[in-house]
Design brief:
By secondary structure, the chain is α/β, with parallel strands linked by helices. It contains 9 helices and 11 strands. Strand 1 and strand 2 form a beta hairpin.
Length: 256
């Protein structure tokens, strides 16, 4: 099996003559945390949407575990083990934490759309749901209503529901967006923890987060790959500094 769990070859996306992503060839190594960074409008979220097939590429190919998934549907890709989180926390506010995680686990029962079944039929999932809540440090809040959680804990819950889908590749879209420093640090360590035995591809603006946990970084600018490599190399790249800061002096610092 290839060392690369995900590859794109000359991936492009055009919208009525505007090229949002141009000839991106990306290789994500198995078992690593790979960060996709770049200024606003660089094409990061478009790239994520292409990888999960929320958008169809104009040209190019996408490979997951050596399989060409370019023309597969989002549900097919999810079943392969490519699971994505979004910039906005996607949890059910009027349900408890354990109920949220159980919904993620339902897929294994094959009862996702069996709405007529009693909620008691889901209790067989409670042990695994509690394991996942423990993994993200929320076990003491299992019966709390999700609406009462602070924002950082909601993101931790979203990671638990993502883990419930048994991802082989987790795509995290701005996991620390809108957080205070304490929550950023907590979620950063959580991502590092849950990445054990998995592969993570993340879009992230916070350079401190990227420098702390990413094994490899791809920098996008205007839809194209500007630079790629470990943080120490990328942060000293004059083109990257100019794209972020409008200067080629000094070094890219840990910042939002």
């Amino acid at each position: 099996m290839s060392d690369f769990i995900l590859e794109t070859r000359c991936l492009s996306k055009e919208f009525r003559g505007f090229t949002a992503v141009s000839d991106i060839s990306l290789q994500v190594q198995r078992g690593t945390i790979h960060a996709l960074i770049g200024p606003n409008g660089a094409g990061k979220t478009t790239c994520f949407n292409l990888l999960t097939k929320f958008l169809e590429p104009t040209s190019g190919q996408i490979f997951f575990n050596g399989h060409d998934i370019t023309h597969e549907q989002p549900a097919q890709i999810a079943r392969r083990g490519v699971i994505r989180s979004f910039q906005i926390s996607a949890v059910f506010p009027r349900m408890t934490l354990i109920e949220n995680v159980r919904i993620g686990l339902q897929r294994k029962l094959g009862t996702d759309f069996h709405f007529w079944r009693s909620a008691r039929s889901l209790h067989k999932l409670d042990d695994r749901a509690m394991q996942l809540l423990t993994e993200v440090g929320l076990e003491d809040l299992a019966d709390e209503m999700t609406v009462n959680l602070p924002y950082g804990r909601k993101r931790a819950l979203e990671i638990a529901t993502t883990l419930a889908m048994e991802p082989e590749l987790m795509l995290l879209d701005e996991p620390t967006q809108g957080m205070g420093h304490e929550d950023v640090d907590r979620v950063t360590e959580l991502i590092r923890k849950v990445a054990t035995g998995r592969t993570v591809l993340m879009v992230e603006h916070n350079m401190k987060v990227v420098s702390t946990i990413a094994n490899r970084i791809t920098v996008l600018q205007r839809g194209e790959v500007l630079a790629e490599g470990p943080y120490d190399d990328v942060s000293k790249n004059s083109q990257v500094m100019e794209a972020y800061m409008g200067t080629t002096d000094g070094q890219l610092q840990g910042q939002h």
